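Predict both folds.
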Amino acid sequence: MKNILLLFILFAVFNCNSSEEKKQNKNLLNTKETPEAALKQFPKLEPNRYNVAFLIMDGTFNTELTAPFDIFQHTIFRENIKAMNVFTVANTNHAITTFEGMRIIPDYNYLQDALPKIDILVIPSAEHHLDSDLEDEAMLDFVKKVDKEAQFVTSHCDGAFVLAKAGLLNNSVSTTFPSDIDFMREMFPNLDIKKEVLFVHDGKYITSAGGAKSFEASLYLCELLYGKEIAKQLAKGLVIDWNINTIPYLIIEK
């Protein structure tokens, strides 16, 4: 008798769990979003901070992403400043694969999600920023839309090609990866593109040569926002000897 009662309880529990699982699966199937989107967890954005979005896609180069991400994320450890919320945006809910093979799940899908107001947009370089990415109208429209309200828009290495293609550098001086400067000048003959500088700051736009020098351009923005001492503290935390006077850069006064 006890065995029959035990079997009955096990059957009831199993049947209940199966019904609940079917219900959840049915809800997922009824949504217009993909299952990945329906179960998506968005990052917690603290109030009274700068919202900093990193535009990523397949082929993004690690350094141009991680260098500014590290600098900006470390602002949360400094006291009495308006720190930064850092997050990634892409055109997918699936993981993107960087050029070096890292797989990263984007925090937001700019084609589907309601995005927070973006104060600073960072465009790291990606493998196809010189060709097929420049034909991505949805991506270019996203960049142009963010530009309207962003306080700063920054690029590293060939990320400058995206800004140029979006028409955002038409009245600004810029730079890019050293060996791609001539090609950028050829592709955008009306732009003023500088050589022999690590970064250029013109209005809201900061464009850098990229690579390890992405650290310098990011530290410069922090010095601009928080002052020299905070920038030095951020640099020290990453074992960087920060002195802006020892590097070649250009600021366009307007």
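Second protein follows, with its predicted structure tokens after the sequence.
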Amino acid sequence: MSAPGLRAKAPGAKPAAEKPAAPRVPGGSQVLHEGDWSTPSTARLGMLKRLREQGIVSEAVFEAMRRIPRERFIDEALWSRAYEDNALPIGFEQTISQPYVVAKMIASILPPTGKLAKVLEVGTGCGYQAAVLSQVADEVYSIERIRGLYDRARNNLRQLRLPNVRLAYGDGYQGLPDAAPFDAIIVAAAAPAIPPALVQQLKRGGKLIIPVGTNSQQLKLVEKRVAGVIESQLDMVRFVPMLNGMVK
């Protein structure tokens, strides 16, 4: 007799087929189904609440950051800190930007529709900001000068299987002229001055957001209009420096 609530197996019945294991990306990371990562945790929702209190108002940005698991882009030892409003180390003397800065920068380049056609990110890092951008843009191009970070970002992004993100290994000062022009460019490192090549790769009406300065850095918004280029000064920030060349 079977126990209450359990069904006895019929004689000769075949055992139930086991659910196939999720495929893995190079390096052993599990490829996740969208439902595994897009449902926000309590910590992720707490981050969104804090962003509203800090003055972020873009619903498109909230939705994008609600869907992307920040912990998947940092070392597992730091997962408990993933949704703090702090920059965190990602190796190679680089950091993942604090959530407020990511939200502020993306909100600053979004049009009123909350959707971009094509965007370039300079400084892929661990890939988190590119993943957030994938939720608000049809095409995301991201360039990274450090080969080890490029490989890490590629593996991180493969876990989420985002089809509209394209990574490039190259010098961010040069941008990606073959993919230009872009509706927006977002730079995740501080340059001593605004790189002319990036301004040239903007569409007319496009926006570039970039930290500028060395010891003292200020977030600047550059808009390319018919009458010329208009610069606006936003928050004081602290980013790693934007360097020339590539690192193998």
